[in-house]
Specification:
The complex is a heterodimer. By secondary structure, chain A is an alpha/beta fold. Chain A has 12 helices and 8 strands. Chain A is globular and about 55 Å long. By secondary structure, chain B is of the alpha/beta class. Chain B is built from 12 helices and 16 strands. Classes of the chains: A alpha/beta, B alpha/beta. Chains A and B meet through strand 2, helix 4 and helix 6 of A and strand 3, helix 3, helix 4 and strand 9 of B.
């Protein structure tokens, strides 16, 4: 008689268990599963501030997280993780401490405490799933919201450009920072593994599709991110020690319109998408200059 | 015991450090450290202390100082920090979180006036702002009381029947920056006094749980009731902690509330922190002249020792509460507690005196005037603003 493992046995120690409450097409679901896969059986301790990521867990006494997880106050993820990480180190425990945070908790309310933990180079793997919106509170603007995107607090389209969080983190001279795409699986897994092998403060940023906030079709989530990368809007790159750059993929001529027209949050973007093209151009001029001046050896 | 001349801040730093050391054979200790006048010497002392198994992490704000303590405590370590005034205000969210997580973090509050306008002198409005947090609150009348109370706070807060954070307050400058002779408990004795810190719900790889996620109203009510029940167990746990303190160190710190000469007193004055010592001198002098007067050192504010208070004033006709704090639109915060406790005693006059706010010097003369006012009263009135000389 063959035995079949029960779902509990199969999944109970997953970072993210099946049956969670995430919306269909949520980039966070993919990110959490790939995080789990890239850690190759190692189980992280998660610190998650107020964001969709903690709603994911569901209501007490159930939880969708199969690893030790602390829900922190909104602005505290990195500092709570510093405390956890310090005590693990005092006790010789190798467990990796992962901050799993939205863009509100990273770019906005949590930026001071994130900056402090990065400056101390505390041993934390910090991952921001950036859906460019306060999704959990109904879709308000954050400083990660791109120019012209309509949110519940920018009904005419946001007038400011998106904050360059990678440049801010590079300025802290942390050992490793990288952008990750849920449409580029091998690259995503490789970067998690690189981050895991690196000690000190590591910052990973993934553009996380949010059909609810982006007013897009859930089944197109991965494809949207693929277009964001190919058009140059969301570049894939790595920064080592805050100063050596490696660009992973260049724009391939995919028009940004293919990304924009499939999301109703971009109704205020003109048909030629000129402001976004100008943003892409500026962004790549900056990245190319940095990669030329400060190349990562072997890049 | 090592007798030494120490400032209140260094005495507090020493007590925190040896308490942290006492957990070195368990999961160690950690502190999130951020400076503010008049607390800064405490975290300076801790940063300079050579811990066997401890980390003092310099952070960018008080909010993160408490967040580091929360993380350290969730990982099973003994955790502590210190702050004052606007620093405590900035920390508030995470102080509430520490209580709701049931983490026995010890927080030293060097009492200072909340600003703006900026004033660095003593006023208890900062720690009393934390009235509604799930937080034990002790007020120390002297340097020695401070050291002893910090050790007691760890023992009570970490007791498995309590598991709540604890605040120990001292007067800014009056205690923090003056020197007194203190018995600094030897480490070996502190090792004996403090059991290893055990956080039963700490983060564990083999036992994954999500701490602090979502709850429905029913679970939230249960959670709050459990905190209230933990608070109600504090008197018993505190009594045991004081017995053990006496057994280990050979002296007994004050309990939640200490009544002096109240058995035969018609008039009872109540105060906390260093005002207690001035009050004691005035009360002693008046008793020497034959007055039936007593006093209460209200050392513990949370849980508020209602039963002890009712027992202490069973023969009193009038009670004067000295409040070095002000709740705008109401009055003194200790007075509110006393008045609520004495609902069953409508025969007692409970009068509030707002005194020494913003660090005004509460002299024996000021207290004499308050007592004269109280003794002349037929009934209680609105809180009285008692100005002190500049």
């Amino acid at each position: 008689m063959s035995t079949v493992a029960s779902p509990e046995e199969l999944y109970c120690h997953n970072v993210l268990r099946p049956g969670n409450t995430n919306c269909a097409g949520c980039g966070m679901s993919i990110g959490l599963r790939w995080l789990d896969e890239a850690l190759d059986g190692e189980k992280p301790t998660m610190v998650i501030p107020a964001c969709c990521g903690i709603v994911t867990a569901g209501a007490f006494p159930t939880t969708a997280y199969g690893v030790p997880t602390a829900a922190s106050t909104f602005a505290s993820a990195a500092a709570v993780a510093s405390g956890v990480s310090a005590v693990y180190a005092l006790n010789g425990e190798p467990d990796v401490v992962v901050c799993w945070t939205g863009d509100g908790g990273t770019y906005d309310i949590g930026v001071a405490t994130l900056s402090a933990a990065a400056e101390r180079n505390d041993d934390i793997l910090y991952i921001c799933y950036d859906n460019e919106i306060y999704g959990n509170t109904g879709g308000q603007r954050s400083s990660a919201t791109p120019e012209l995107a309509v949110t519940s607090t920018t009904t005419k389209g946001k007038s400011e450009r998106k904050k360059d969080m990678m440049a801010i983190m590079a300025g802290h001279r942390i050992p490793y920072a990288a952008t990750l795409s849920v449409a580029h699986r091998e690259d995503f897994l490789r970067k998690i593994r690189t981050a895991r092998k690196t000690s000190g403060f590591r910052f990973l940023l993934t553009l996380s599709p949010c059909p609810t906030g982006w007013k897009s079709d859930p089944e197109e989530s991965v494809d949207l991110i693929r277009h964001a990368v190919r058009s140059g809007l969301f570049p894939l790159y790595e920064i080592f020690d805050g100063i050596r750059y490696r660009l992973n993929e260049r724009p391939d001529g995919t028009p940004v319109e293919e990304y924009v027209t499939r999301q109703r949050r971009y109704t205020k973007v003109p048909t030629d998408a000129a402001p976004l093209k100008s943003y892409i151009e500026d962004q790549w001029r900056y990245l190319d200059a940095m990669a030329k001046a400060f190349p990562m050896e072997g890049a | 015991m090592a007798r030494a001349m120490e400032t209140g801040n260094h005495a507090a730093g020493y007590a925190l450090a040896v308490a942290g050391e006492a957990n070195r054979d368990a999961r160690g200790c950690a502190c999130g450290a951020y400076p503010i006048t008049p607390q800064s010497e405490i975290i300076e002392f801790l940063r300079g202390f050579d811990f066997t198994k401890g980390r003092v992490i310099p952070v960018e704000s008080e909010h993160s100082a408490m967040a580091v303590c929360i993380g350290a405590s969730l990982a099973g370590a003994r955790a502590f920090t210190a702050s004052s005034a606007n620093g405590l205000a900035y920390m508030v969210e995470n102080i509430f979180a520490a209580g709701f997580y049931r983490l026995p973090i010890v927080l030293i509050a060097v009492n200072r006036t909340l600003g703006p306008p900026w004033n660095i002198w003593v006023d208890q409005g900062d720690s009393l702002m934390l009235r509604d947090a799930a937080l034990l609150q002790f007020y120390a009348e002297s340097h020695q009381d401070l050291v002893d109370t910090i050790l007691v706070a760890f023992r009570v807060g970490e007791d498995q029947r309590v598991l709540l954070p604890a605040l120990v307050a001292l007067d800014g400058f009056v205690t923090s920056h003056t020197q007194m002779v203190v018995d600094l408990p030897e480490r070996e004795l502190v090792d004996r006094y403090l059991p290893h810190c055990n956080i039963p719900h700490r983060l564990r790889g083999e036992h994954p749980a999500t701490i602090g996620g979502l709850t429905w109203p029913r679970e939230t009510e249960h959670h709050r009731v459990e905190i209230q029940e933990a608070m109600e167990r504090v008197p018993q746990v505190l009594a045991e902690a004081l017995d053990e303190f006496e057994h280990v160190f050979g002296r007994r710190p004050h309990g939640a509330l200490s009544a002096e000469h109240t058995d035969d007193a018609d008039t009872v004055l109540m105060a906390c922190n260093t005002m207690v010592r001035t009050l004691r001198n005035v009360v002693t002098a008046r008793r020497d002249k034959g007055e039936r007067i007593g006093m209460i050192n209200s050392k513990m504010f949370r849980p508020f020792p209602r039963q002890e208070l009712l027992a202490a004033v069973s023969n009193a006709k009038r009670i004067g509460v000295l409040d070095r704090n002000h709740s705008p639109g109401s009055g003194g915060i200790f007075w509110q507690e006393v008045a609520a406790t004495l609902q069953s005693r409508p025969d007692v006059i409970v009068q509030d005196y707002l005194v020494g706010l913003g660090g005004g010097d509460v002299t024996p003369e000021v207290i004499d005037e308050i007592i004269d006012d109280l003794n002349a009263r037929e009934k209680a009135g609105e809180p009285v603003w008692k100005e002190v000389a500049a």
